[in-house]
Design brief:
By secondary structure, this protein is mainly beta. The protein is built from four helices and 18 strands.
Length: about 270
């Protein structure tokens, strides 16, 4: 077997040479050409980055952290200190590959890319909230909303323990992933980010977070000019600028992310 090593190029959580030694010692070759799978070491942000760009099956490896601001790596299948045992399981065939559907993101009909976990529109440097409209259309869901908020996140099931779950963290469930609200395989999650106001047009509800059927078309546009940025679909830390009059559309993607699961559980939430 052969694996390609995928780390943060600027600030990897482990030394590339150290990771390479562990993989080689496990009897697995290292390299991009002809690789059978990828080993991603990092946190959920790094998993999301490679999850939207790689076509190989991916093993997500977290790094234990005692610090309060350390990576939590909810999507990790193993940790770096347990990697030798995980690689032994892979060599012996004790794993499954779970295919996660991606979401496709466009702006003004230009395809920006596909996401594995989530994409979110958020305010940039301005202190005021964003004012935007959101519409959902498709089989099983059709409505429009208006919101005043810091932004809005659209998540796949893999992204359910990320930004989408901030509401659960506020409620006090800060650590245990099973306590978070989850997005199903055939659903897309939508969550307004700290809204001061939401309104579903034609209804007497003010939604904060909910799911819609997979395949729904989600469109977002500003109704007041602001410094709005789209994150999660590109590597830029500055995000992608979205101006008033521009429409962001999110639909079912054409690609899947292949995730290697070592202790396969069909009921695992993500």
């Amino acid at each position: 077997m052969k694996a390609v090593l995928l780390l943060d190029g600027d600030a990897p959580k482990v030394a590339p040479a150290q990771l390479s030694r562990i993989v080689l010692k496990a009897g697995i070759e290292v390299g991009r050409a002809g690789a059978d799978f990828g080993i991603v070491v990092g946190g959920d942000g790094r998993f999301g980055r490679y999850g939207r760009t790689e076509k190989l099956p991916l093993l997500f490896v977290g790094v234990r952290s005692k610090g309060a601001a350390g990576s939590k790596a909810h999507l990790a299948q193993t940790t770096f200190d347990e990697l030798p045992e995980a690689l032994a399981k892979i060599r012996s065939g004790e794993y499954a590959v779970d295919a996660h559907r991606r979401l496709r993101v466009t702006k003004e009909a230009k395809v920006l890319g596909e996401v594995f976990t989530d994409v979110y529109l958020q305010r940039g440097d301005e202190g005021s909230c964003l004012r935007y409209k959101l519409s959902v259309s498709g089989k099983g869901a059709r409505f429009e909303e208006a919101a005043i908020a810091d932004g809005v996140v659209v998540a796949t099931r893999a992204g359910s323990t990320g930004y989408y779950s901030y509401v659960d963290r506020i409620r006090g469930n800060m650590v245990e992933p099973s306590a978070f609200a989850h997005v199903g395989r055939d659903e897309v999650g939508i969550c307004h980010i700290t809204p001061t106001y939401t309104e579903r047009l034609g209804a007497e509800i003010h939604p904060l977070r909910y799911t819609v059927p997979w395949g729904s078309k989600i469109e977002i546009s500003l109704f007041r000019e602001a410094d709005a940025r789209l994150f999660g679909v590109a590597d830029s830390r500055a995000g992608i600028k979205v101006s008033m009059g521009e429409k962001v559309s999110i639909t079912a993607g054409k690609e899947v992310t292949k995730v290697m699961t070592l202790r396969y559980d069909p009921h695992r939430s993500w």
